[in-house]
Amino acid sequence: MKIVLYGKQGHAYTVAFKNFLNSTDVPYIYKDVSKDSEAREHSKELYDGVVKFPTLFVDDKIYLTPTTDEFNKIMQDLRLRAWIFDFRDK
Question: Which Pfam families match (predicted)?
Answer without folding.
Answer: Glutaredoxin
